[in-house]
Amino acid sequence: MSAMKPILRMPERLTLPWLLLAAGALFVSMLITKDHIEQVTSAQARQQLTADRQTLERALVPQAQRAQAVAQWLANKPLIGDMAQRTEAPETQAWLDEAVKTSGMHWAALLDAQGDPQTSVTEEVRTALRQNKAALRAHHSTSTAISIRQGQDTVWLWLHPIESTVGGLAGQVVLGQTLNASWRGSLSGLTRSQLIFLERDRPDGPWVQQGRSKPQAAASAWPSQEGPSQQANIRPLTLEGHKWLADVIPMVPNDAYNLEGMALVMDPSALRAPWLGLVGMVLPVLITAFSLGIAWSAWQGLRLRRGLVSLMRWARASMESNSVVVPAAKTILELQGLANDLEALRRHQKTLEAEIRQTAFLDPLTLLPNREQFCTRFKHLQKSGGAKERCGAVILVDIQRFKHINEVLGHQNGDRLLRLVAQRLNDLLTDKHEALARVGGNRYVFHLPQVSASGAVKRAQAALAVLDTPFELDDQSIDLSAQAGVSLYPDNRMDGHELLTRAEVALYAARHQHQPWLSYSPTMDASDPASLTLLSDLKLAISRNELRLFIQPKVDLITGEVTGGEALMRWKHPTRGMVPPDRFIPFAEQSGFVKQLSMWAVEECARVWLTLQLGGLDIPLSVNLSTRDLIDKDLPGKLREVVERQGALPQALVLEITESATMDDPESAHRTLTELHDMGFKLSIDDFGTGYSSLAYLKNLPVDELKIDRSFVMNMETDLSDAKIVRSTIDLAHNLGLKVVAEGLESPKAWKLLAGLHCDQAQGYLVSRPIPAEDFLIWARSWRAPSVSEEHLTTAFADIL
Q: Could you give the 3-state DSSP secondary structure of residue 563?
């Protein structure tokens, strides 16, 4: 232990050098700080003088401009020239009074060509004009400002020549203002720096300071022959033994003589006082802190000496996983040995932590972060402020029917496919802050912390598009389909688990609505408080007669006659107003209440159909059925009871189902549809082209009608690919013995194209928006099909007909 004393006492031996070094650093920093304070305060003083000069100029220059404009206006009056030539005019005095009032000057006068006043002025003004006649005549041909002496005061004159009607100059217009103590006082309150007024008796005379205002300066300190500067010219000035900064300004802008000026002065030392006082307060604190730091270091050195040996023994024993006590160090090189041992211990611990982290936070199959790491990462982002300040998104991607892939290819190949999916999705990350995680067997989640709502939608579409490309596995092409749910933030109350849950809700809603992706909305979530309130109101809506039935008509594309209508539900809430279906249908499906809504719609359609029959309109009405309706084994009996209660016929209703609604339980759905068909109900496949059913399954369904989804019809007149899809769908349906209805008809050109492709019926905004059921008969009687004979189809579109 005695051999280690030189090493263990090293902290104590460093105390004195450290104290000297700290003291030297403190002294140098104080010198630098003092110099910096002088520079800063000098710059502040110059900025204040510049600002004050601009303030004074903003006060003086506009008055000079007004005086110039008014003098010019007065000189241009037709009778002014005559007045200057001793011709009396009664309007002249009124014009002079108006000029004084408008310009803000004290008086106005007219001078003849010899410089004598031709209008009534005070005796003091007349005397001043007579004494300065030479100066006035020197500027008789120009519009300018000069200053003259009037007793103890300086008078600011603005001169403008008067042209004679016969040529030459007839005289001058003179506007005057006395620069008295009151006028100077109005300027003193405009500046933060001190304002000193200067004067001289003649244009080439020396400047002197007016009155006994403080501070005082020697006459030699002020500018002499050159006069005040028209531009900022800040210069040092000695006032009362101190170094000040000054800027001398002419009292009258653009004055030809400059008999009076102003000096803006500021003492930089006054600005330095607060800084130096602050330094005086901080310096003892710094010295005390340094002293305490040195004392603390010495004390810690004593403690360090007692613990170094035991620390070295512990480090080596922990590496060897035994309790052998390390011998005491014998040379000074043992300090380096301790550092090496601690570094080895750190590497060993880091390896263990990496193994633990990989087990706890990484998905072992894809080596992507797992659900726990995803939530932990979002929590760290919230603590750093990122989730609160920027909009971000969580996108949950679900690979559809992956269980079937595992059963066909085997779990080993299924795992290989999951790794390929992870690789493709990981390539979509564009920023180091973005992350991809695997949160389930066939589910991946994107965390995009810096993306807008529209950007999140584009990223979700990109993820689905990249998965739409077939995967190659052992020379076998594998097609995958996926859906996505999008959840947006910021929301300070949410964590990663809640965001992921919302993305899952959006994913389930996309699955039920047969959409490739959906963004989360509270209306999707039956557990959301707002949705619970809305759902509670919805359950009472039927008994309160708040639901309304609207009908969107279908027309024959050849004859233009009304051939049917699709029933659509609206909810007139007593406080929320008209609630659209997309606000209440999604969580009604989640809660199972959609079955009651379907029965209400069927009963209303049966009642409306009977009303239309009595009005002479014999057309079937279409009703949408949900997936939950199809899995109800009692559905046929319920529909028969409703129709019979209303006195309608099964043939009066067309039951619309989406093509993917039968895929959850195909056998049961097939039995239900067959029974409904045998009862006399007509069946229709809605939104064809957006689901996942195969043609082999479709041909076995007992359906009568096929509806082409609006996404293909709305763009078919401009998108040749969509037009070809529509043509193929129509040919396919006709070959299967089905009628075809096109949704989304919105233009006459689309009508002509669909008619040329032999589509049977169509519905859309070109025909009509949804109409209240009670108004449908009136609309049908007034309906007239548009003429489409003049619509022109390009060659490419005409060729597919």
A: strand
Spatial separation of the C-alpha atoms in residues 98 and 66, rounded to whole Å = 13
Query: How far from chain centre, in Å, is Cα 202?
Result: 65
Strand partners, 781: none
In this structure, are residues 317 and 324 in contact, taking their beta carbons and an 8 Å threshold? yes
DSSP three-state, residue 511: helix
**Residue 548: how many other CB atoms lie within 10 Å:** 16
Distance CA 83, CA 89 (A): 7
How far is residue 488's CA from residue 393's CA, in Å, rounded to a whole number? Answer: 4
Q: How far apart are CA 28 and CA 19, in angstroms?
A: 14
Q: If we measure between CA atoms, which residue out of 720, 399, 750, 394 comes closest to residue 555?
A: 750
Q: Which of 788, 787, 708 is nearest to 743 (CA)?
A: 708
Element at 381 (helix H, strand E): helix 371-383
**Vertex 279: Cα angle to 278 and 280 (nearest 5):** 90
The one-letter amino acid at 220: S
Rounded Cα distance between 381 and 148, Å, is 74
Indicate the residue type of 267: D
Q: What are phi and psi of 560, to 5 degrees?
A: 80, 5
Give the predicted TM-score (pTM) of the model: 0.44
Is residue 607 within 8 Å of residue 646, measured between CB atoms? yes
Distance of CA 575 to the CA centre of its chain: 32
CA 606 centroid distance within chain: 51
pLDDT digits (tens, 9 = 90+) for 182-213: 777 777 778 888 788 877 777 777 777 776 56
